[in-house]
Amino acid sequence: MSDSTTTTTTRRNWLRRSLLLAGGSTSAAVAARVADQYGLVPPDARGIWAPGHTLNYASHRLLAGDAPAREFTRDQISRPPHANGKPPSDAEYVRHRESGFADWRLRIEGMVERPGEFSVAELRAMPVRSQVTQVACEEGWSYIAEWTGVPLTALLERVGMTPKAKYVVYHSIQPRWWDSIDMYDALHPQTLVVCGMNGGTLPVGHGAPLRLRVPRQLGYKSVKYLTRLTVTDSLEGFGKGMGSFAAERGYAWYSGI
Ligand SMILES: Nc1nc2c(c(=O)[nH]1)N[C@H]1C(S)=C(S)[C@@H](COP(=O)(O)O)O[C@H]1N2
Ligand SMILES: [Mo]
Question: Which of 64, 163, 59 shows the shortest CA–CA distance to 111?
Fold first, then answer.
């Protein structure tokens, strides 16, 4: 083990202990101070929510680390799946839908060496991964489906993400549905830019032609009708700087499960 690994491990253990102690003694503010030192303060840590959101985010990151979301077997797939909300009805989306999404592009920009656009066909031609995971909505319902897509980490590598990047902000053709994740989730092998579901193409109700699947967090982080990714080291320039529209509405930015 190299020196730097030893130092990192020791620090991590110490931080882990501090967070557990702070959590256990209900002094979440202490945990918040510790988390701050390690850059584990979520963007929606504001006002009365700050200690709770921070404790939740920092302890998940330190205790669960890269732990994968549970994967199920194909016979556990829910039939039919539950589609949430209505698909976009604006003229632009309807046009895309009628042309089989031939002109749909996923744009990747920000802190990358080679910003650019990918068509759905280009994404389908890349190495894809399939996994059976659960979509858990904050409202209490859930369903299990098989998702097929390009791991986000592969896409980020392809466009040459710069090492200083800290977050990936993602946007939908539905303007309110923008959100962001940190690099723990962005680089996690289960985080996919999904183009297929249950063995077929992604249905309109579930986000056609592309959606992000972040199976380690609640359903609302899995934004449908995905159009654009922005790689950044700060969430300040996006909306109110809280990391997502949902966070501005009172939902936690980090909703690990
Ligand atoms: N663009 C967009 N993405 C979205 C939503 C939406 O309404 N629009 N709903 C979210 C919520 S709250 C959940 S729980 C999941 C549900 O996924 P489903 O529609 O496949 O069931 O999608 C999320 N992504
Ligand atoms: Mo949801």
Answer: 163
Token digits of residue 172:
């939908």
Q: Which domains does the chain have, with CATH numbers?
A: 3-64 (no CATH), 74-248 (3.90.420.10)
Counting ligands in written order, the one closest to the CA of 142 is: 1
Nearest CA to ligand 1 atom 15: 219
The angle at the Cα of 86, spanning 84 to 92, to the nearest 5 degrees, equals 135
- Assigned token pair, 9: 């491990």
Please tell me the distance between residue 177's alpha carbon and the centre of ligand 1 in angstroms. Answer: 9
Query: CA–CA separation, 145 vs 206, rounded Å?
Result: 11
Mean pLDDT per 10-residue section of the chain, whose length is 257 residues: 52 63 57 78 87 87 88 97 92 98 98 98 98 97 98 97 96 97 97 98 98 98 98 97 97 95
Spatial contact of 147 and 130, defined as CB atoms under 8 Å apart = yes
Give the Cα separation of 130 and 213 in Å (integer): 11
Residue type, 225: Y
Of 48, 20, 47, 25, nearest to 35 by C-alpha is 20
